[in-house]
Amino acid sequence: MPESAQLLFARLDELAPDAGSPVLGEDIDRKQLAVGSGISARAHADEAHDLASIFCNERRRPPPVPFGGFLHGQRLQLLGRERVRVGGLPRLDLDPCDSCGVVGCPGADHRAEPTLPSVKRIALLGATGSIGRQALEIIEAHPALELCAAASGSQPIDGLAPITQAGGDLTELLERAEPDLVLNAVIGFAGLPATLWALERGVDLALANKESLVAAGELALAAQRRGGGRLIPVDSEHSGALQCLEGRPAAQVHSLVLTASGGPFRGRVREELEDVTPSAALAHPTWNMGPKITVDSATLANKGLELIEAHFLFSLPYEQIEVVVHPTSVVHALVRFRDGATLAHLGYPDMRVPISYALTYPERSVTPIRPLDLAGGMTLEFEPPDVETFPLLAYARSAGERGGTYPCAFNAANEVAVAAFLAGRLPFLGIADVVAEALAAADGSAARDLDDLVAADEEARRHVEETLKVA
User: Is 263 helix (H, G, I), strand (E, B) or coil?
Assistant: First the structure.
């Protein structure tokens, strides 16, 4: 046993002699788990962190991080930025500032090595949508993934998972399920409470609900800092950007480039879009997606939402994020670096790839998707977006740069406008018009909490509905 581990054990016994001897276990991936014996008071927090840091340094593991929300629902913090659910331990709720590196666990059996689960428990929100259906395929094919809970907007899904729910409060489902990872594929602002639930509790979040970060970027990131869990994007562009950026200092990054297919109306001018029907807008040339995101792709609103999401995900200023049109959707993201080099993420347009990456991160599991056939002939074309014909991209950038609740208002107005277009209540070009009016009328004040965001969301929706009535 390393000297630093002996020091750690001895000090734990000294601080909590009645809790039993602590146990240090190591799983097959050599992830260090400390089941401590009682350091939870602020007076011992610094010392606990120092001891754990010494141990990690000697074993060449990443430094420990504060427990934060990992201690909810029988969840313990691993030494080295990893989490694990340990069965049979008592439910623990400690202040995020109280402990670091070790945790009091008097109910544990300290005579035996801790056993680490081989299965990752997944809660799937939005199970009947396009992302949800493909996620089910990935989970079913992977022996280390287990669907512990599933939710849909309204469609009954009884029997799909041990815990299911159609509609209602998704956070109640998550509280019952106690997942290791939440895949949030809910459409729109409705997915925000579940996002905040996962981030606050340090539960890994695979995020397909981009509207969560668009509407609540600052609040969501603050929740993640408190909880300490991983936020893994599911959008193909952000998944690609993450893989190009991961582990690289921000100072090395010159700019991030997100690609857009251009949708079914690429190359058309405004006059050619006056009589566009919902069926025409839903005929996406490269991706198979749900109706709302497909219409957003046709208007370039989706790329605007992704622009704002990237700003928060990667802490990049808007002037360092560029959007280009790439019709074949083979290149998902590019990162330019200060030395003139550019890294790109390429792959056939299939959402099972980023879904699998998020669910199995950082494993990068096998998928049924074939690798790129470069020798078979491939042309990569890029062009600037036409923001005159498709102004929603520019409106989104402006909303993001203004900050506050302007992105929330943009998202809310766009959701209502797209629903109205699909229902035949609004022409295609009218989507951008009513969003512009809603942004002009928005207060835009920064949100202090979820209630403020809900109020801003409702106000933008109300404004669009009133505009539709007049029209």
Answer: coil
- Whole-number Å distance between alpha carbons of 129 and 187: 9
48-83 pLDDT, tens per residue? 555 556 655 655 554 544 433 233 322 333 333 333
pLDDT tens-digit map of 169-213: 999 999 999 999 999 999 999 999 999 999 999 999 999 999 999
Domains in the chain: ranges and CATH:
3-85 (no CATH), 120-233 (3.40.50.720), 246-349+356-388 (no CATH), 403-471 (1.10.1740.10)
Distance separating alpha carbons of residues 327 and 419, to the nearest angstrom: 26
Q: Are 83 and 77 in contact (CB under 8 A)?
A: yes
Kindly compute the dihedral angle of the four CA atoms of residues 354, 359, 364, 369, in this order, to the nearest 10 degrees.
Answer: -50
Residue 38 makes CB contacts below 8 A (sequence gap 6+) with 12, 15, 16, 19, 104, 106
Task: Name the pTM for this structure.
Answer: 0.76
Locate 220 and state its tokens: 């969501």
The CA distances from residue 297 to 265, 282, 350, 390, 433, in Å, are 10, 9, 16, 10, 17
